[in-house]
Amino acid sequence: MVLSTAKFLDVGGIRTRYFEQGSGEPLVLLHGSNFGADLSADCAINWCRNFQGLAEFSHVVALDRLGQGLTDNPKRLEDYTMDAVAAHAAAFLRSLKLPPVHLVGHSRGGYVAARMTLLHPELIKTCIIVDSLTLAPGAGNMVAMMAGIPEPRLTKESQRWVFSRYSYSTDHIDDEWLDEVVAVAATPKYREAVEMVQLSPFDSHLAKQKPETLAILGERGIGKPTLIVWSVNDPTATIDQGYALYKLIAGAEPRSQMHIFNRSGHFTYREHPEEFNQLLHGWIAMNHA
Question: What is the pTM of this model?
Fold first, then answer.
Protein backbone atom coordinates (compact mmCIF):
# COMPACT_ATOMS: atom_id res chain seq x y z
CA MET A 1 0.00 0.00 0.00
CA VAL A 2 1.58 3.28 -1.10
CA LEU A 3 1.70 6.51 0.82
CA SER A 4 0.32 9.72 -0.71
CA THR A 5 2.19 11.64 -3.42
CA ALA A 6 5.60 12.74 -2.17
CA LYS A 7 6.11 16.41 -1.35
CA PHE A 8 9.35 18.32 -0.84
CA LEU A 9 10.06 21.27 1.44
CA ASP A 10 13.19 23.35 1.97
CA VAL A 11 13.94 23.26 5.69
CA GLY A 12 16.91 25.51 6.44
CA GLY A 13 18.59 24.52 3.18
CA ILE A 14 17.76 20.81 3.59
CA ARG A 15 15.48 19.48 0.85
CA THR A 16 13.07 17.31 2.84
CA ARG A 17 10.71 14.65 1.50
CA TYR A 18 7.42 14.07 3.25
CA PHE A 19 3.95 12.60 2.75
CA GLU A 20 0.74 14.21 3.95
CA GLN A 21 -2.91 13.22 3.93
CA GLY A 22 -6.15 13.49 5.89
CA SER A 23 -7.63 16.08 8.20
CA GLY A 24 -8.14 16.52 11.91
CA GLU A 25 -5.59 16.24 14.70
CA PRO A 26 -2.02 16.44 13.32
CA LEU A 27 -0.12 13.17 13.66
CA VAL A 28 3.55 13.14 12.68
CA LEU A 29 5.49 9.90 12.10
CA LEU A 30 9.24 9.52 12.62
CA HIS A 31 10.81 6.32 11.28
CA GLY A 32 13.85 4.62 12.79
CA SER A 33 17.55 3.98 12.13
CA ASN A 34 19.95 6.80 11.21
CA PHE A 35 21.80 8.32 8.28
CA GLY A 36 24.58 6.17 6.92
CA ALA A 37 23.35 2.94 8.51
CA ASP A 38 24.79 -0.06 6.68
CA LEU A 39 22.11 -2.54 7.81
CA SER A 40 18.98 -1.00 6.27
CA ALA A 41 17.99 2.28 4.62
CA ASP A 42 14.88 3.11 6.68
CA CYS A 43 12.71 6.01 5.56
CA ALA A 44 9.11 7.29 5.65
CA ILE A 45 7.99 4.34 3.49
CA ASN A 46 8.33 2.22 6.63
CA TRP A 47 4.82 3.51 7.47
CA CYS A 48 3.19 2.34 4.22
CA ARG A 49 1.01 -0.26 5.98
CA ASN A 50 -0.39 2.39 8.36
CA PHE A 51 -0.53 5.66 6.48
CA GLN A 52 -3.88 5.41 4.71
CA GLY A 53 -5.61 4.07 7.81
CA LEU A 54 -4.20 6.84 9.99
CA ALA A 55 -5.35 9.43 7.45
CA GLU A 56 -8.95 8.31 8.02
CA PHE A 57 -9.00 10.03 11.43
CA SER A 58 -6.03 12.44 11.47
CA HIS A 59 -3.93 14.85 9.46
CA VAL A 60 -1.02 12.44 9.12
CA VAL A 61 2.47 13.46 8.03
CA ALA A 62 5.44 11.12 7.54
CA LEU A 63 8.83 12.61 6.74
CA ASP A 64 12.22 11.29 5.76
CA ARG A 65 14.43 12.31 8.66
CA LEU A 66 17.66 14.25 8.10
CA GLY A 67 19.99 12.30 5.79
CA GLN A 68 17.52 9.44 5.29
CA GLY A 69 15.18 8.54 2.47
CA LEU A 70 15.32 11.34 -0.10
CA THR A 71 15.97 14.09 2.45
CA ASP A 72 19.34 15.81 2.06
CA ASN A 73 22.32 14.81 4.16
CA PRO A 74 23.63 17.17 6.85
CA LYS A 75 25.71 19.96 5.36
CA ARG A 76 28.52 19.66 7.91
CA LEU A 77 30.30 16.69 9.48
CA GLU A 78 29.51 18.01 12.97
CA ASP A 79 25.80 17.83 12.15
CA TYR A 80 25.85 14.05 11.90
CA THR A 81 24.25 13.86 15.37
CA MET A 82 20.86 13.03 16.83
CA ASP A 83 20.59 16.65 18.00
CA ALA A 84 20.78 17.83 14.40
CA VAL A 85 18.11 15.28 13.44
CA ALA A 86 15.78 16.60 16.17
CA ALA A 87 16.48 20.22 15.21
CA HIS A 88 15.69 19.47 11.55
CA ALA A 89 12.42 17.72 12.44
CA ALA A 90 11.41 20.62 14.70
CA ALA A 91 12.19 23.13 11.93
CA PHE A 92 10.14 20.99 9.56
CA LEU A 93 7.11 21.22 11.87
CA ARG A 94 7.51 24.97 12.12
CA SER A 95 7.75 25.24 8.32
CA LEU A 96 4.45 23.37 7.94
CA LYS A 97 2.88 25.72 10.51
CA LEU A 98 1.09 22.83 12.21
CA PRO A 99 -0.62 23.22 15.57
CA PRO A 100 0.89 21.08 18.36
CA VAL A 101 1.18 17.53 17.03
CA HIS A 102 0.88 13.99 18.27
CA LEU A 103 4.47 12.88 17.59
CA VAL A 104 5.18 9.19 16.95
CA GLY A 105 8.76 7.96 16.94
CA HIS A 106 9.86 4.40 16.21
CA SER A 107 13.23 3.00 17.30
CA ARG A 108 15.81 5.79 16.91
CA GLY A 109 12.88 7.97 15.88
CA GLY A 110 11.57 7.42 19.42
CA TYR A 111 14.71 9.00 20.81
CA VAL A 112 14.24 11.94 18.42
CA ALA A 113 10.58 12.26 19.50
CA ALA A 114 11.56 12.40 23.18
CA ARG A 115 14.28 14.99 22.54
CA MET A 116 11.88 17.13 20.51
CA THR A 117 9.28 16.95 23.27
CA LEU A 118 11.85 18.10 25.84
CA LEU A 119 13.40 20.84 23.70
CA HIS A 120 10.41 22.08 21.70
CA PRO A 121 7.33 21.49 23.91
CA GLU A 122 5.36 24.20 22.10
CA LEU A 123 5.32 21.98 19.00
CA ILE A 124 4.13 18.81 20.73
CA LYS A 125 0.70 17.79 22.05
CA THR A 126 1.57 14.20 22.97
CA CYS A 127 4.55 11.90 22.50
CA ILE A 128 4.31 8.26 21.36
CA ILE A 129 7.48 6.16 21.63
CA VAL A 130 7.57 2.79 19.85
CA ASP A 131 10.18 0.10 20.61
CA SER A 132 13.13 2.45 21.06
CA LEU A 133 16.28 0.76 22.28
CA THR A 134 18.09 4.06 21.63
CA LEU A 135 16.00 5.72 24.36
CA ALA A 136 15.44 2.81 26.74
CA PRO A 137 17.75 2.20 29.70
CA GLY A 138 20.41 -0.43 29.12
CA ALA A 139 22.31 -1.73 26.12
CA GLY A 140 21.31 -3.96 23.23
CA ASN A 141 22.79 -6.99 21.50
CA MET A 142 22.87 -5.68 17.94
CA VAL A 143 26.33 -7.04 17.14
CA ALA A 144 25.35 -10.60 18.03
CA MET A 145 21.90 -10.26 16.47
CA MET A 146 23.29 -9.14 13.12
CA ALA A 147 26.13 -11.66 12.99
CA GLY A 148 26.02 -13.41 9.64
CA ILE A 149 24.36 -10.60 7.70
CA PRO A 150 24.51 -11.37 3.96
CA GLU A 151 27.06 -9.41 1.96
CA PRO A 152 27.07 -7.10 0.15
CA ARG A 153 25.05 -5.05 2.58
CA LEU A 154 22.04 -2.89 1.67
CA THR A 155 21.05 -5.13 -1.24
CA LYS A 156 17.49 -6.40 -1.38
CA GLU A 157 18.29 -9.80 0.07
CA SER A 158 20.56 -8.34 2.75
CA GLN A 159 17.91 -5.85 3.90
CA ARG A 160 15.24 -8.58 3.79
CA TRP A 161 17.45 -10.65 6.12
CA VAL A 162 17.92 -7.68 8.47
CA PHE A 163 14.18 -6.92 8.66
CA SER A 164 13.48 -10.61 9.23
CA ARG A 165 15.89 -10.67 12.17
CA TYR A 166 14.02 -7.74 13.70
CA SER A 167 10.61 -9.35 13.28
CA TYR A 168 8.37 -11.95 14.91
CA SER A 169 6.44 -12.57 11.69
CA THR A 170 7.88 -11.82 8.25
CA ASP A 171 4.56 -11.34 6.42
CA HIS A 172 4.99 -7.56 6.53
CA ILE A 173 8.31 -7.61 4.64
CA ASP A 174 7.00 -7.04 1.11
CA ASP A 175 8.56 -6.03 -2.19
CA GLU A 176 7.10 -2.52 -2.03
CA TRP A 177 9.04 -1.75 1.13
CA LEU A 178 12.20 -3.57 0.09
CA ASP A 179 12.34 -1.96 -3.35
CA GLU A 180 12.06 1.49 -1.78
CA VAL A 181 14.83 1.01 0.78
CA VAL A 182 17.09 -0.58 -1.85
CA ALA A 183 16.55 2.42 -4.13
CA VAL A 184 17.37 4.78 -1.26
CA ALA A 185 20.54 2.86 -0.38
CA ALA A 186 21.70 3.10 -4.01
CA THR A 187 21.61 6.90 -4.13
CA PRO A 188 24.95 8.78 -4.12
CA LYS A 189 23.88 10.77 -1.06
CA TYR A 190 23.26 7.59 0.94
CA ARG A 191 26.65 6.17 -0.02
CA GLU A 192 28.18 9.48 1.05
CA ALA A 193 26.38 9.29 4.42
CA VAL A 194 27.75 5.77 5.04
CA GLU A 195 31.25 7.19 4.76
CA MET A 196 30.57 10.45 6.61
CA VAL A 197 28.90 8.91 9.67
CA GLN A 198 32.03 6.84 10.31
CA LEU A 199 34.06 10.06 10.54
CA SER A 200 31.45 12.00 12.50
CA PRO A 201 30.82 12.48 16.24
CA PHE A 202 27.55 10.52 15.95
CA ASP A 203 28.35 7.60 18.29
CA SER A 204 30.26 9.59 20.92
CA HIS A 205 27.62 12.32 20.97
CA LEU A 206 24.78 9.84 21.47
CA ALA A 207 26.72 7.93 24.15
CA LYS A 208 27.08 11.16 26.13
CA GLN A 209 23.61 12.54 25.50
CA LYS A 210 21.53 9.42 26.22
CA PRO A 211 22.21 9.27 29.99
CA GLU A 212 21.66 13.03 30.19
CA THR A 213 18.30 12.62 28.44
CA LEU A 214 17.22 9.78 30.74
CA ALA A 215 18.16 11.88 33.77
CA ILE A 216 15.97 14.73 32.54
CA LEU A 217 13.06 12.36 31.87
CA GLY A 218 13.31 10.96 35.37
CA GLU A 219 13.87 14.20 37.25
CA ARG A 220 12.09 16.98 35.37
CA GLY A 221 9.74 14.81 33.31
CA ILE A 222 8.85 14.83 29.65
CA GLY A 223 6.10 17.39 30.18
CA LYS A 224 3.52 15.93 27.79
CA PRO A 225 1.11 12.96 27.79
CA THR A 226 3.24 10.03 26.66
CA LEU A 227 2.35 6.61 25.28
CA ILE A 228 4.96 3.85 25.32
CA VAL A 229 4.27 1.10 22.75
CA TRP A 230 6.39 -2.04 23.03
CA SER A 231 6.53 -5.63 21.83
CA VAL A 232 7.00 -8.77 23.87
CA ASN A 233 9.11 -10.34 21.13
CA ASP A 234 11.32 -7.42 20.07
CA PRO A 235 14.83 -8.94 19.79
CA THR A 236 16.57 -5.55 19.94
CA ALA A 237 14.65 -3.72 22.66
CA THR A 238 13.48 -6.18 25.32
CA ILE A 239 10.15 -5.86 27.10
CA ASP A 240 12.08 -5.32 30.36
CA GLN A 241 13.79 -2.31 28.80
CA GLY A 242 10.45 -0.99 27.58
CA TYR A 243 8.96 -1.32 31.04
CA ALA A 244 12.02 0.38 32.59
CA LEU A 245 11.54 3.31 30.21
CA TYR A 246 7.84 3.49 31.07
CA LYS A 247 8.56 3.49 34.83
CA LEU A 248 11.12 6.25 34.36
CA ILE A 249 8.80 8.47 32.31
CA ALA A 250 5.63 7.70 34.29
CA GLY A 251 7.38 8.50 37.57
CA ALA A 252 7.56 12.16 36.59
CA GLU A 253 4.67 12.35 34.07
CA PRO A 254 1.33 11.02 35.40
CA ARG A 255 -0.29 11.29 31.97
CA SER A 256 1.69 8.28 30.75
CA GLN A 257 0.49 4.90 29.53
CA MET A 258 2.08 1.75 28.15
CA HIS A 259 0.62 -0.65 25.59
CA ILE A 260 2.23 -4.04 24.94
CA PHE A 261 1.84 -6.07 21.75
CA ASN A 262 2.17 -9.85 21.91
CA ARG A 263 3.66 -11.89 19.05
CA SER A 264 5.33 -8.85 17.59
CA GLY A 265 8.90 -7.84 16.84
CA HIS A 266 10.59 -4.49 16.41
CA PHE A 267 8.24 -3.21 13.68
CA THR A 268 5.07 -3.40 15.77
CA TYR A 269 3.17 -0.99 13.55
CA ARG A 270 3.89 -3.05 10.43
CA GLU A 271 3.23 -6.46 11.98
CA HIS A 272 -0.09 -5.30 13.52
CA PRO A 273 -1.17 -2.28 11.43
CA GLU A 274 -4.90 -2.31 12.18
CA GLU A 275 -4.42 -2.72 15.92
CA PHE A 276 -1.67 -0.12 15.99
CA ASN A 277 -3.83 2.38 14.12
CA GLN A 278 -6.75 1.74 16.45
CA LEU A 279 -4.47 2.34 19.44
CA LEU A 280 -3.43 5.72 18.05
CA HIS A 281 -7.04 6.57 17.21
CA GLY A 282 -8.05 6.01 20.82
CA TRP A 283 -5.03 7.87 22.17
CA ILE A 284 -5.72 10.91 20.00
CA ALA A 285 -9.40 10.89 20.92
CA MET A 286 -8.51 10.77 24.61
CA ASN A 287 -6.07 13.68 24.25
CA HIS A 288 -8.12 15.76 21.83
CA ALA A 289 -8.99 18.62 24.18
Answer: 0.98
